Amino acid sequence: MRKLTVALLAAVTLTAMLASAVPARAEVLYPWCALEGGKGGGATNCGFVNRAQCMATISGIGGYCYENPAYHGPGHRPIFIQRGPRPGHG
Questions:
Q1: Structural domain boundaries in the chain
Q2: Among 46, 59, 65, 89, fewest CB within 10 Å belongs to which?
């Protein structure tokens, strides 16, 4: 009887732990982006805390800084948009 009670308690505890688990999120959004590079195109880097940091990055390589359209301030939960299949993929 004791083994059954311990097993039941373990099962209830495990179920409670799994039910309250929240998936991890690795998403980090910063308020400033840079379009780096010059005439031949370039890369987008949205990893800047402020405009000055962005400007310092592009000062030697060219490009421009702009506000990250995906950033909505601290504590804001992003809205996920469901998109249809890409053309040619579905």
A1: 28-72
A2: 89
